[in-house]
Input
Amino acid sequence: MRKMSVRKKSRAVVEDMRREYRLDCKKAKPNPFASQMGAGTVVVALDPDVAAVFKSSESVNALLRSVISALPPGSKPQE
Output
């Protein structure tokens, strides 16, 4: 029977933010979607399981507006 080699364990991924990130702006590309966003537009990233439920931004906005209208007057949403 041959011995199986044991792979070295990779270093643990550090989840913390670095103090500084060095970005090379020469390699930056313009945002192809910038023209689609109007003034005052806020972009929010959805988790994949949530994004799978919605087919468009309009459907997300419709649901959020219905939730907002169901809130008691003067209440603030939890962060």
Notes: Helices lie at 48-51, 57-70.
